[in-house]
Amino acid sequence: MTHKLATLSFDDGTWTDIRFAKSLREMKIPATFYLPSEYLDMFHYQMRPSEIRKVYAGFEVGSHSRWHSHPDDFRKTLEVASKDGEWDIRYAREYLQEFFGREVRCHSYPFGVVRWRPNFPSLAEAVETQGFDFARMMMRSRQEVERPIDRYRMKITAELPVDFDDIGEHEAVHLVGHSFRLVKQNEEASVFELIKDMKRNGFEFMTNHDFFTETWANHE
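and the corresponding C-alpha cells:
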C-alpha cells in the first residue's frame, strides 16, 4: 500500500443509523452497514421498505445474520448447530439481496463470535459455503488489519469512539461502531471529528469490501 486506507463498519441496523448515514453522505464518506435481516421488518414498524432503502442508498450493506442470534441459540448439539447456523446465514443474505436489489458480499458475525463452543462448528465455514467474499470479527489486531491472514476472520483496529492519536500512524484502519451506542454515549460528534482528522492526514475511506480486497492483496 502506498497510501493510508480506512473503512467504517456500523452493526445492528438500528434507527440511529439514519443520523449517521445522513452525516456520512453529506461528508461523502463511504461506509458499510451490517444489518440483521429480520430487523428490517421491525425498524421498528416505523418506516416503509422504500424509506429503509433510502437510508442505506449509496452505502454498502452487509449481512449480520437473521436475528442477531447468539451462537448458543443455534441449539446445544453439534449437528443441529451446524444446520441452523448455515441456514441463518443463507436466509439473511438472500433476504437482504432481494430487499435491496444488490449483491451482499460481506458478513459480520453477531457478537464477533465465529465458534462459541469448542464442539460447535465454525460459522466461518458456513459463511464461505454461502459465497461471501469476506467476513468480519470484533477481534482487534493492527497487524492482521494491515496484512490479513484469513478472509473469513477479518480483524478490526478499534471500536468507536477512538482518539486519532491511537490510530494515526497505522497503514490501514478498520473502525467499527454501533450507532445507537454512540448516540447514547453522546459520541456522535467525536466520530465525525475523527473522520475529518483522518481525511486531513491522508486516509482514504472506502467500503469494507473494497478495503478487504486491497488489504488482502498484502496476504497474497
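(Above: one complete record from the training split.) Strands lie at 4-11, 32-35, 60-63, 106-108, 134-140, 154-156, 158-159, 172-177, 203-206.
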